[in-house]
């Protein structure tokens, strides 16, 4: 599905529909299913594959310049989120899932100035 690549920013992924999406990250393979959210830290080599080809997912790459301008200490972040079974804070996970779904709905419609504002309101880091 996706050959090996990396990004300057942090990547946030959410598998809406599908099962057994194999995600290779720095040489280790993870298996994700519907409802899984996972993060890829900056400049980490990753790829995805699997038998199923009709996955439905959202993927957001957080621009590094933007993130650093808002949170200078984020340069030292090493985020660890690899699916719903790998998190202890289920409430925060559900809140993040809800935000991703809402962002996806907004981003799949024609982008107007009002919709841009709504997208930005979901990206506040408070």
TrEMBL record:
Recorded GO MF terms? DNA binding
Spell out the Gene3D superfamilies in the cross-references. Answer: Jelly Rolls (2.60.120.10)
Supply the InterPro entries for this chain: AraC-bd, HTH-like, RmlC-like_jellyroll
Q: Where is the AraC-type arabinose-binding/dimerisation domain?
A: 4-67
Superkingdom is Bacteria
What keywords would UniProt list here?
DNA-binding
Q: Which GO terms describe its biological process?
A: regulation of DNA-templated transcription
Its protein name is AraC family ligand binding domain-containing protein
